[in-house]
Amino acid sequence: MALTRLSAGLLALALPFLVVRPAAAADLAACGDIHIEAKSECEFVATGGCEVECENLSFEAACHAEGYAQCDGSCSGSASATCTASCDIDACEATCEANPPKFDCQANCSVECSGSCDARCDAECGNDSGCRAECKGACEATCQGDCKASCTGTPPSATCKARCEASCEGQCKAEANLSCQVDCQADLQAQCETRLQGGCTAQCSRPEGVLKCDNQYVDHGGKAQECWDAISQWKGAIETSASGSASVNCKNGKCQGSAEGEASVSCAMGQEPGSTSGFAFLAFGLAGVVYRRIRRR
């Protein structure tokens, strides 16, 4: 297997992505609602060694996302008045008002909520490193799920105040549900990981192969292109929520540079993940993450 990588140093890249639907809220349902961060590095792995890759990948994030959905019915805590009063709505509104069309309630909520997972899990687990790791995965999945639930009913056309209040509500609901989700997801994790590892091996025989982000398996449920588009859009929304500004240095569908003899590489997202006829390149924001393609020889 030959893996062609594009050097992030060739390009001065930030956001937004070259994904159509810039006004739509990002949604990772096509990726099993897995937790993704702006700095995450994602790639498809196909053929030659793919099965070995499945043995080395982590399935924790995908299983925590699945566990959140299964536990959601029994973990139904609501945001406390104390928590919502502690949200810095003014700061959130200031970020939103700097560029209202690009402010994403769910992404903002997830960034704020996930950022406090370490502290929450230290309080839950003390010095138990295994507990902290499980807790953090459950916390990030809970943030992702509760933020999505809270923000879904607040459209991008709503006022900045309304979107920021929904973001705060999602963060506080996740806080209320954390202990319940950690306990509930722990009972489901091992069985889920075994099942997804088998699914990973099966995906190696498909043209697009297996999608991973930061060595975490991403369960796209047969919707590889939809999942990839969703990750692109989601990471753009996270960077915009975190930085308040974005741009991309691409012209006429090309990002100038070279990669193993190529004079230029395409910035378009139209290619199928399993395509062998060139590169599909994405700027993953200020972190400079590169989508690395498998080229079959």
Tell me what the structure shows:
The protein is mainly alpha-helical. It has one domain (2-295). The chain has helices at 50-56, 60-71, 81-86, 89-98, 105-114, 117-125, 129-152, 160-186, 189-203, 224-243, and strands spanning 2-4, 42-45, 210-213, 216-217, 254-259, 262-266, 293-295. A hairpin with a 2-residue loop joins strand 3 (210-213) and strand 4 (216-217). The radius of gyration is 19 Å and the shape is globular. The model is unreliable at 1-24 and 244-297 (pLDDT under 50).
Write a short abstract of this structure.
The protein is mainly alpha-helical and 297 residues long. The chain is built from 10 helices and 7 strands.
Please tally the β strands and state the result: 7
Structural class: mainly alpha
Low-confidence stretches: 1-24, 244-297
Please give the share of residues in helix. 40-55%
Please indicate the percent range of residues in DSSP E strands (runs of 2 or more): 5-15%
